[in-house]
From TrEMBL:
GO molecular function: ATP binding; GDP phosphatase activity; ribonucleoside triphosphate phosphatase activity; UDP phosphatase activity
Keywords attached to this entry: ATP-binding, Hydrolase, Membrane, Nucleotide-binding, Transmembrane, Transmembrane helix
Family in the record: Belongs to the GDA1/CD39 NTPase family.
Biased composition (Basic residues): 554-566
Listed GO biological process terms: CTP metabolic process; UDP catabolic process
Protein name listed in UniProt: Golgi apyrase
Length: 692
């Protein structure tokens, strides 16, 4: 059986409150290049996913710091889902990553290493996915790297990478800034304007991707993180400040202006009913007082050693809000839209938002609780909404400096400004200095898409057949910097068959009928019978039989469980397609980028962000991300390589284009030994995981 044209990737986002599985898929570049038109050749690879390819599990893996040997059982259901969704013949070619964020950063280094080591052992013993280097594939990523990945994901989905003219904001700028906030940390990433980029060139990261024609596409991005500035950690600091300031000796009640009137909780936020001798926080519903109490937590009074600075004395280049339009995800979205936004309302407006928050937070808790009881699992959101809103307002406006629309000067959008703005930017609606989003064109914005964009771009053959401009990121210097983090992929082509479009059609039909009634099921079976007659080749019949049989069997068979004999319609399909052949179930879909769909986001403060790594020697099939402590050195070749005029330290992007369509480089790639597969190492000898 020939290999599928699809490439796959698996990423587990190990956040502070839980771990979310993401499965991604893209067309093998050799096939995609062959069929691409001129616009597609100038674009990045098209990465796809589906709602059913995501799954969330609680709690976060940081809770296994004291018992790391149990982390494998915790991950089992997520790993089994990936194994079931990805075709078996593609497992050895599919990279798997677990990238942990701020929840794990809070653990001591020895506990971090113990948990990550157990994860690696579990993956290698229970899957055949590609895992050549645990240090690169299973790690705690720094917050600035998480921010960079999020910046890539947001701009990829908005389309600015592929359509610079359509997304022009003025002053030659066509990318969007990225803001992320989770439970433990917050990130910012943006490309400064040309003046600031030249002034602060040493503070920027060089990001290089590769379009389908093999040309290098380069950006200079600033990114940083604030550990302790996520909503959960900020709340803990706030509560401690309350207790220190207002607890009277011999008393056990502390007034809390950031909670609705009459709400009583413990220090950890657990509601208290009835009399109690525990330390209590008692809501007073004073949102103006809440803003005053949370503002000092920004750390604006911390000395700035490298001007300019934003929060906690950390350096950030000057932000030009005329061209730096930010999208905020995770808590920026949930805090502005989870409790306060009307249905269908998307745009953040400071005046409107603050008025809604004040009205909500000044109510009696009993009234709010009665309203929230109609909404499933939202009482916790309502309980924390006032603090989160005050924290977000302070971070956005007093911390980062986002203009308050309607109060302060904002650049958008009078007639003179809009003349220089691209049509795509206008259509997307991202003309304000800040807009909170959870999806872009019905696609969830997740930082996990960033590593997959880099990995897929690294599989595109370079325009001249040599890797003078490798895909990845590192310090903003000429040539290939010593800390450059390679994408980890190569451009070895797959052997392809002509059956993939047929598989995509059948898969789409299966997905469609599963969402419909039983009458739709009957119609679907009739369609399959007709198509089965038209496509009479045995291998096609076998794949089709597998899809129909999986549909008629309501519950998927778990690996290792016995097969059950077919009855009724299942027996009919056996007669049509053959009875005794082994089949693979695939999840395959054709379509444009607009059909790319990610999983639903739970309204949870720690699900999306939270950030904090491995050095790289040469290239391997793993995605490299930076470590906090770099060790070792790169090959002499990488030290001496020179990018030359393709780089411009002060510019935002340098793109090398080809006037001719690229002939795909289909050179024989290095074959993978089955005997040497990582999954055959039941007791792997692992290289040590570096401590932060």
């Amino acid at each position: 059986m020939g290999k599928s044209k699809w490439r796959w990737g698996v990423i587990l986002d190990a956040g502070s409150s839980g771990t979310r599985l993401h499965i991604y898929r893209w067309e093998d570049p050799a096939k995609a290049i062959k069929d691409a038109d001129d616009d597609e050749l100038r674009s990045l690879p098209q990465i796809k996913t589906k709602k059913k390819w995501t799954e969330k599990k609680r709690p976060g893996i940081s809770t296994f710091g004291d018992n790391p040997e149990d982390v494998g059982d915790y991950l089992q259901s997520l790993v089994e889902k990936a194994v079931e969704q990805i075709p078996e013949e593609k497992h050895a070619d599919t990279p798997i990553f677990l990238m942990a964020t701020a929840g794990m950063r809070l653990l001591p280094p020895l506990k971090q290493r113990a948990v990550l080591s157990e994860v690696c052992t579990y993956f290698r013993q229970n899957t055949r996915f590609s895992l050549p280097d645990c240090d690169r594939h299973i790690q705690v990523i720094p917050g600035d790297v998480e921010g960079l990945y999020g910046w890539i994901a947001a701009n990829y989905l908005l389309g600015g990478f592929d359509d610079a003219e359509g997304h022009a904001h003025g002053k030659g700028h066509h990318t969007y800034g990225f803001l992320d906030m989770g439970g433990a940390s917050a990130q910012i990433a943006f490309a400064p304007n040309s003046t600031e980029a030249e002034k602060h060139a040493d503070d920027l990261k060089l990001l290089r991707m590769r379009t389908m024609n093999g040309a290098a596409s380069e950006y200079k991005v600033f990114t940083t993180t604030w550990l302790g500035y996520g909503v959960n950690q900020a709340r803990q600091r706030y509560v401690q400040k309350l207790v220190d300031s207002y607890l009277i000796e011999g008393q056990h009640e502390v007034p809390d202006p950031c909670m609705p009137i009459g709400l009583r909780t413990t220090e950890d936020g657990e509601p208290i009913k009835g009399a109690s001798d525990k330390l209590e926080l008692v809501g007073t519903g004073d949102f103006a007082g809440c803003l005053r109490m949370t503002k000092p937590l920004l750390g604006k009074d911390v000395p700035c050693k490298d001007e300019p600075c934003l929060l906690n004395g950390q350096h950030v280049p000057g932000i030009d809000f005329d061209v730096n339009h930010f999208v905020g995800v995770s808590e920026y979205w949930h805090t502005t839209h989870g409790v306060f936004a009307e249905k269908g309302e998307k745009v953040y407006d400071y005046n409107t938002y603050q008025k809604k928050v004040e009205d909500f937070c000044s109510q009696e808790w009993s009234e709010i609780e009665a309203l929230q009881s109609r909404k499933k699992d939202h009482s916790k959101d309502a309980q924390e909404a006032c603090f989160k809103a005050s924290w977000l307002i302070n971070v956005l406006h007093d911390g980062i400096g986002i203009p308050r629309v309607g109060i302060e000067h904002t650049p958008s959008p009078d007639i003179n400004i809009t003349k220089g703005i691209g049509e795509a930017a206008k259509e997307k609606g991202f003309l304000d200095a800040f807009q909170a989003v959870d999806k872009i064109d019905d696609i969830e914005v997740s930082w996990t898409l960033g590593p997959m964009v880099l990995y897929a771009a690294g599989q595109v053959p370079p325009i001249d057949g040599t890797d003078k401009h490798p895909v990845g990121f590192g310090s903003n210097v000429k040539g290939i910097p010593d800390d450059f983090q390679f994408a980890g992929s190569n451009w070895t082509a797959l052997s392809l068959t002509g059956d993939d479009d047929w598989d995509d059609l059948a898969e789409d039909l299966v997905d469609h009928v599963k969402a419909k009634s039983s009458s739709g099921l009957l119609l679907f079976v009739l369609i399959i019978v007709l198509l089965g007659y038209l496509f009479r080749r045995r291998d096609r019949r076998m794949r089709l039989y597998g899809k129909v049989n999986s549909l008629l069997r309501p519950h998927p068979r778990r690996p290792g469980s016995p097969r059950k004999g077919g009855r009724g319609l299942s027996a009919l399909t056996s007669k049509l397609f053959g009875r005794n052949s082994h089949t693979y179930e695939r999840i395959i879909e054709e379509g444009d980028a607009a059909q790319f769909e990610l999983g639903e986001v739970e309204s949870d403060e720690g699900d999306h962000s939270d950030s904090t790594s491995g050095t790289r020697q040469g290239r391997t099939s793993g995605l490299a991300t930076p470590k906090l402590n770099m060790m070792g050195s790169f090959d002499d070749l990488t030290k001496s390589a020179h990018i030359g005029s393709a780089l411009d330290r002060s510019g935002l992007v340098v793109r090398t284009e080809s006037r001719e369509r690229l002939t795909p480089h289909l050179g024989a790639g290095r074959s993978r030994s089955r005997a040497g597969s990582p999954t055959r190492l039941k007791s792997p000898l692992m290289s040590p995981l570096n401590e932060d």
